[in-house]
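Here's my example:
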Amino acid sequence: MEKLNQIIGWRMGGVMDFWGQRIVGIFQRKYLKISFLALLFSCQEGGQVSSIPYYNGPDFSPYFLDKQEAKALINHHIDHFYLKDHHGNTYSHDQLKGKIHVAQFIFTRCGNICPEMISQMKTVAHKFRAHPQVELLSFSVTPWIDDVPTLNKFAQEKRIDVPNWHLLTGSKSNIYDLARRSYFAEEEIGFTKDSTEFLHTEHMILVDKEGRIRGIYNGTLALEAEQCVKDMEKLLTEN
């Protein structure tokens, strides 16, 4: 982590596009608890710095690194998992290899934020429908209720017919651990919680082909979903 902070300190260029425009919103949303220096970067000799940051912990401090730096310094990756999708098929981390993906955490009986989260995920799905390098994952946080038939019915009711969008269910403890410790779905506040405490978050998390977190968005807001799409387009061009 000290090495990461040293690299951030070397960045002297200006943040482009989304990050420059959203600095106020970033501070308001709290999950990016960073200093001004952490938002500054420039290209170092030997590699081009990605305009899409890396996240290495539940505080969601962004690190703007080149490919080699990221390989050496970003050690957090989404953990392995085995679940069932809404068609009854086994779905695992193996199906994410070589792909970027977006994850959200919902439940079928949710009447407040979940409908809007589904709506915004449809924005992403519309752009990347059946894209061979994109997967969309909706994990149920009430898997004891949301079994395969329930998720399948929910998908039909919500007209979720995108082949690379998977509604997932399985062990509660596995899903909650994955959400809090792999995706940092509830940021720092949820990192130390266990599966006895209910999981509920509006966050949508973007993960790159190497299983590293590259974006976090408010999944109830159209502007955030649109930004997620733009970031995904950039990630797909990274080698």
